[in-house]
User: What shape does this take?
Amino acid sequence: MNTGFDVERIRKDFPILSRGLPGGRPLVYLDSGNSAQKPTSVIETMREHLSSHYANVGRAMHTLGAESTEAYEAARDKVAAFIGAPSRDEIVFTKNASEALNLVAYAFGNPMSEDPRFRIGPGDEIVISEMEHHSNIVPWQLLARRTGVTLRWFSVTDDGRLDLSDLDELVTERTKIVSIVHQSNVLGTVNPVAEVLARARRVGALMMLDASQSVPHKPVDVAALGVDFLAFTGHKAAGPSGIGVLWGRGELLEAMPPFLGGGEMIEAVWMDRSTYAPAPHKFEAGTPPIVEAVGLGAAVDYLSGIGMDAIARHEREITGHALDALGEVPGLRVIGPENLDDRGGTVSFTLEGIHPHDVGQILDDAFGVAVRVGHHCARPLHLRFGIPATTRASFYLYTTPAEIDALVRGLHHVRKVFA
Ligand SMILES: Cc1ncc(COP(=O)(O)O)c(C=O)c1O
Assistant: This one.
């Protein structure tokens, strides 16, 4: 298989990929959907920042403070360009995608939100889907408990697609926001954003995308998507953990109340009240994840240097190979789309009669193949398919066909062990 993509050269950028495992097993890392590995440029940029430029940002009137602030704010510029944000002020650094999703949910029904789009109460509705990560379920459940708003959701078809057959009944004049995943972390499904957005716009609802699994893997342009909010997390995009991104349309961020209170998010403070800094700083209380943001800036530089189109093409080839090869394993059932249409490089499956935990254990012990097992923080989706858990292989720009073959060899071995 030739993807026209020099994956061997790319692998050299990721030092961890050349380490071996105890017993001489090679490392076959197929868990990038959980957290991706980091290229040398990210590691070195963070090391360089810590060893030569580090100081707190935004408040120190000295040379290191200025250098550190410049690097932190440059990371914001890079992220804004990476996702096509019309303004750098629309990029809020959070600690992960979960925090970004919570931040938006917190604005609804908040007595400080004067904008009618964020006023919410009994009779109003929020729409999510059955294929969400818990990070895009629980914040809305918490909102529902606080405000009495009703939580509704799209169901999922047998082949792992969003079921839009009741789109018009689900998304109505009562809907305040539709928040769905762009690409499922279990099924790999890429959702039809335009169709859902058109309905949301028709009824005056806002729309948010959880893009944790799409931004790292393919070109994502918020202006072209046309949604209102988008969240993703740095550690799945070849960046460090501890940094996430909320993009929101500028006028909405201005209308939203602060999420956390503290230093740097204020304009002026008296003993009984405060006024707040404009977005994005209004949402970045306290000392932010400085080195992590700088590392994320290096990660998006790295990914852009390779090209998101090229990365998406490579992952498509790898996923096609994986779907073909896994299809040959007796008793294996893919949970999610079995063709390449509108799907990304995450393949979850069950192996008849064998618990995913056993599958994962044997793959690791015998073949050095790292996969994730369990419900992948998407328990309702697993309940929908009537299974407690799946084994998930997830790919990235450094995944090779040989690694897929190692996975498949491992699965044949697992079947033999349990025969
Ligand atoms: C689709 C999706 N949303 C949200 C998250 C949460 O990311 P984080 O744990 O970095 O907040 C994940 C992580 O697995 C994910 O896959």
Summary: The chain has 14 helices and 17 strands. The chain has a mean pLDDT of 97.
